[in-house]
Amino acid sequence: MLRRELVLPEGAHTIVLRGNIDNDYRAFYNGQDISGGFRVFGGCPVWTQYRINHRIPVGNATRHHLTIIGRDYGFWAFLDPQVHAEVGLWANAGPDRTVPAGSAVTLDGSASGGPGATVLSYQWQQVSGPPVTLGGADTPAPSFTAPQVASPTQLGFRLFTFSGYQYSNPDAVTITVNPVTGLSPNLAPIVSAGADVVVSLPQQASVTATATDDGVPQSGNLAFRWEVRSGPGPVVLGSGNAATTTASFVHPGLYVLRAYASDGQLEAWDETVIAVQQGPAANAAPIADAGPDRVLDVNQEVSLLATGTDDGYPGVPLTYAWSVQSGPSGGALISQPEQPLTPASFTIPGTYRLAVTVSDGLLLAEDTLDLVVLPANEAPIARLGPDVQLQIGEVFQLNLSISDDHVPASALSFYYSQLSGPSHIVLGAEVSLSLPVWFPAAGVYQLRASVFDGQLTGYDDITFTVTSAGSNLPPSVDLPPFHEVPGYPSDLELIGSVTDDDQPSGSALTFHWQQLSGPPRGALILAPDSSQTTVTFSEPGVYRFRLTAYDGEASGDAETEVVVFTDGNSAPQVEAGPDQQLQLSEEALLHASIVDDGIPVGATLSVAWRQVSGPAPAVFDDPSSATTLVRFSRQGEYRLEVMASDTERSATDSLVIAVGAPNAANLTLSLGPDRVVAFGDSVTVPLHLTSNGVTIGVTTFNLLQLSATANAILAGEGPDWFTLQFPVVGTYLFQAEVEHPDYFVYDQIAVTVTPGNNLAPSITLTSPGSGSLFPLGGMVTLQAVASDPERGAVTVEFYDGPTLLGATSSVTSSFVLQTSSLSLGSHTLTAVAVDSLGQRTTSAPVGIQIVRPAPTVRIAIPADGTQHPIGDPLVINAVTTSSVPVSRVDFFVNGQPAGSDTASPYAVTLDTAAFGPPPAALSLTATVLTSDGQSATATPITAHLVDPESIPEALLEITTPLPGDTITAPTIVTGTVQLPNLASWTLEAREANAPCGDWEIIGSGTQTVTDDALGEFDPTLRLNGLHELRLT
Fold first, then answer.
1. What pLDDT sits at residue 997?
2. pLDDT tens profile 466-485
């Protein structure tokens, strides 16, 4: 017995115990037997690891003593040492308050906690009232500015806390904001500096500022002023204090002018960018070259080198941006996408198209290259076919078939070599894929064909059994090695290929199918005496079958394996582990905990780590292992995710790793709220860096574009600002970073560019028609017609709900959809037209239905033509296949209803006495009805009712060994099998009293046996002790 004792801390009110133990366990808490409270997950055999996950309420006891006692099955019988004492945890959001409008408000959650609990994190949320900006929402005391209101207004907030093991229930607080009576609050003017301008020297630029105001103070007229914020040379303003002014320039380049508007109390500003070109020549777009196309191996690192040439205008350095246009999702890793020379690697085989965008600050150029990433090389596969039996003097035509993954892309070479034999094999032609061979002497020869792809060699062997004239050769039997059945109950057709030498003369081949392993009652062989049969499966599992062919003197056989999967598969349970904090020079050890239910049977769990977010790519030692090391090149916060899949279902979990020194100064970088602009307008974004709430200056920063349909243009930048322009409409996401030796902070901002006055394209989804039905496994052709009145060219995208199915670049577009990729039920199809600016128009939706294939049903018992004694009850059993639940099966005898059954195995019992004196023939059939209203009817079979005296008496008996016999050597088990309508019998053995012992087949047959051998029991292959035999 295994005994583990764990003493828990005081003050706990719930114990969570996780571990591994077998089904025969006892659990005691403070001396009380609590075994019945545990739920144990697992199954046979006993070496499977069981998981217990149970909460034990322990009240107010001052000492918690837990003892687990379980059977010791060796190394696996243990308890997880992580026993968590979870304590009471609550959130306290502080008292309700009333504050004046415009005042600073700080919420207080410092009273949160619990006996013995430590609050690791806070989460504040605003749940009602005018929205406010809540600073420090993950701290005990966030703050905001009370909004201006016309009447008393309530703001609602709630607080969650987290201890590392559990979340608290939320607590709420209400802040009532009263208006400031007698005064209307003054709001700053809203200023626009106008659209960005492009001029050529010596041309002047004319700029106009506009502003709107709330009229407070009432006496004030708006005052305007202009100032030059940046540029490569001096700027002469025509009037620095007017809404409209001119600007003159000496040098080409990008200039930023700022317009201010003041109402006498408050002032606001906006900026515009003026691009000055060297006249009279106009700026031309740069020329981009992404380099030649490549072919490389998976995980091979390659250096990408982009070159850009330019005319020198507008006088700023060229910038580069690499992106992935197409290829396997998540397979490309570009280390430095903003550099012309950057390493890149590819973790998934496939064809990738990479693009490099070169910008001179005003105009863009793009070039692409294709990279074909080859999968890891696998050896070629050579096939010579089954072994051969022939006589001296016969010529055999040898045929070699070869398959390869074409990695590397070199020509295959092959050759033959003799491994054994009494003499040399004679090859009757030059080495080729097909050639005649013959043998000078009788005996057994072995020949090998080897295939070389330039790196790896694959081979196959064939054995020739050569006999002298007149000798009988055993039949040659061939079966496919493996089958898969997706569920049960279901049928599978097994087809054997049998060849023979027609010896002895006049003898016909006989066949026999036999189940060697698998659930003993889970498979029914319908035609065991034919080379081709159908097997009906009623249980999941791994089955093995043998086909034997007999020519009257000699026999040959072959085997095949069948895996029947089960319904009810649950996704694996995944835990990525706790969050971590480490220095930049350190590695992080990742260890994912994964638990699965073992379904599908025989499936291997796969694991994949990936990076979700972070300031730079993380490098995993082995992303396909649950335990791996990961390294980081920059400070910051990284979120990593692990996925586990059992080949049918998958699950994920994530953790956060903070790299670098803790942010002791509470540095925060803010880019402000997200922006919305019209196409053609630019956006200037200021950077605000604070330490403990105090603004400090930004000296340098890095700017990254994280996502968009195209690359934005950096039109200008300063120490604490940057200006962006956009080539197409869409949403752009940017990240600005401030990095120092001791800290790293960043913030993100999204800019949505609207079409403005651009006319949208139009599109109509013309096919399929709404309400169409398509069977699962078929095809649907989607057709659409698009047009663009302004720009002509459009891209057409086809969607199933939010899922992109495919895209074309023709205004008259079509797409063929395989319905096997869709789920059953309703689907909403749309087509989207995208013009050259990125403006999108979606067609009217079309609804279609993907329906299931029709169900099937057949009579399994009795077999067609069976004889049954009249007067005895006759059980009629039907087997169905259906992709939806079966509602019921109706049975019919001679066309009349004979009963129904709603649960598998579907069967009714027939009183045969009502069918008159024998002999009588009954026509039996059944109809299946499914939950979705479909039905199917079985092919009728015939059962013959006969006089009971004409049927031999049933006898099933094991005669030797006797009960209690001691067996020390292999022993033949004898007995009698005598049954009317006998289909098959099975002799099985197992260890007696084993908690999870499985029956093992040691003999089987299809013929009557009378006090003769049934099988062999070999004690040398078993453990000492009691064993049981059964005959079925």
1. 58
2. 887 666 777 888 898 888 88
What whole-number distance in Å separates Cα of residue 805 and Cα of residue 199?
Answer: 45
How far is 1016 from 829, CA to CA, in rounded Å? 63
The two tokens of residue 559 are: 């085997």
Residues 6+ apart with CB under 8 A from 1024: none
Q: Which of 776, 683, 784, 657 is nearest to 736 (CA)?
A: 683
pLDDT band at 364 (very low <50, low <70, confident <90, very high): confident
Q: What is the mean pLDDT of the chain?
A: 80
* Residues contacting residue 964 through CB under 8 Å, at least 6 positions apart: none
Question: What is the architecture of the domain spanning 667-750?
Answer: Sandwich (2.60)
| Domain 777-851: top CATH class | mainly beta
In the prediction, which pLDDT does 27 show? 56
pLDDT given for residue 1012 in this prediction: 86
> pLDDT tens digits, residue range 481-503?
888 887 788 899 999 988 887 87
Dig out the tokens for 106 from the structure.
């700080």
What letter would DSSP give residue 329?
T
- Between strands 702-707 and 762-767, the pairing is unpaired
Residues 6+ apart with CB under 8 A from 762: 786, 787, 788, 789, 833, 841
Torsion of CA 795, 796, 800, 805, to 10 degrees: -70
For the domain made up of 97-178, the CATH class stated in words is mainly beta
Range in 37-41, 412-416, 941-945 with the lowest mean pLDDT:
37-41
| Choice between 485 and 75, residue whose per-residue pLDDT is larger | 485
Do 49 and 91 meet the contact criterion of CB atoms below 8 Å apart?
A: no
Residues 282, 698: Cα–Cα separation, whole Å:
35
Confidence of residue 425 (pLDDT cuts 50, 70, 90): confident
**Superfamily covering domain 287-374:** Immunoglobulins (2.60.40.10)
Structural contact between residues 1008 and 967, judged by C-beta atoms closer than 8 angstroms: no
CA distance 505 to 360: 91
Q: Inform me whether the pLDDT recorded for 86 exceeds 60.
A: no
Q: How far is 214 from 212, CA to CA, in rounded Å? A: 7
CATH number of 190-277: 2.60.40.10
Mean pLDDT of 99-114: 87
Alpha carbon distance 134, 138 (integer Å): 10
* Longest Cα–Cα distance in the chain: 125
Residues 90, 95, 99, 101: is their CA dihedral positive or negative?
positive
**Chain mean position to CA 753:** 33
Q: Which CATH class is domain 573-659?
A: mainly beta
Q: Is-above-0.70 flag for pTM? A: no
The full DSSP string for 577-607 is ---EEE-TTPPEEEE-EEE----STTPPPEE
Fold matches, 2-86 and 190-277? yes
Q: What is the pLDDT of residues 983-1027, one digit of tens each?
A: 788 898 888 765 555 778 889 888 888 888 888 888 877 777 788
The DSSP symbol for 179 reads P
Give the pLDDT of residue 568: 58
CATH architecture of 396-467: Sandwich (2.60)
Contact 34, 28 (CB under 8 A): yes
Domain boundaries, the chain: 2-86, 97-178, 190-277, 287-374, 396-467, 476-540+547-552, 573-659, 667-750, 777-851, 856-950, 955-1031
Spatial separation of the C-alpha atoms in residues 547 and 513, rounded to whole Å:
5
Would you state the CATH architecture of domain 2-86?
A: Sandwich (2.60)
Closest CA to 412 of 360, 451, 457, 367: 451
Dump pLDDT digits (tens) for 589-600: 999 989 887 877
Domain 856-950 has CATH 2.60.40.10: yes
**Coil, helix or strand for 615?**
coil
Query: Strand, helix or coil at 821?
Result: helix
